[in-house]
Amino acid sequence: MAILKIVKAGAPILKGTAQPVETITKQTKKLLDDMAETMYAAEGVGLAAPQVNVPQQLIVLDGGNGLIELINPEIIETSKEMEIGSEGCLSVPGYYGEVERYSKIKVKSLNRRGKVVYFNPEGFLARIFQHEIDHLTGVLFIEKADNLRLVEE
């Protein structure tokens, strides 16, 4: 495994649309492993492949209950209820803002074995899913955030 370089806001790849993964290969699985190692090393809760300069629909995340890997994720259902919460991003270091997101969603994805899996995250975990899925369509949280602020560490 390897720690990958996280690209920062302003990099063109972060504004593009990631491509679906057609075939899950050994390289795909290695990239998922490297992304997880990178996310944990950076003390993040989610990481999308465009953030490590790979234009593919791959996400890793961990809302506190273990690693979740998503290949070609798709939000297929949302709640009517919305929540506002604070967000940051490994590609926009030091900045935080309040973002409105659905409080519950249903996501369809593939796992690393190519099997279709469904997730029904709520609250903070739903927020992570939505934030990372936004990366696959070139949307950064700073475009949706209110009260954007730089927090010195």
TrEMBL record:
Keywords: Hydrolase, Iron, Metal-binding, Protein biosynthesis. It catalyses: N-terminal N-formyl-L-methionyl-[peptide] + H2O = N-terminal L-methionyl-[peptide] + formate. GO terms for molecular function: metal ion binding; peptide deformylase activity. One of its GO terms (biological process) is translation. Its cofactor is Fe(2+). The keyword Secreted does not apply. InterPro entries: Peptide_deformylase, Peptide_deformylase_sf. Pfam families: Pep_deformylase. The active site is at E132. Its EC number is 3.5.1.88. Binds 1 Fe(2+) ion. The keyword Protein biosynthesis applies. Fe cation binds at C89, H131, H135. Removes the formyl group from the N-terminal Met of newly synthesized proteins. Requires at least a dipeptide for an efficient rate of reaction. N-terminal L-methionine is a prerequisite for activity but the enzyme has broad specificity at other positions. NCBIfam families: pept_deformyl, PRK00150.1-3. Belongs to the polypeptide deformylase family. This is Peptide deformylase. It comes from Megasphaera paucivorans.
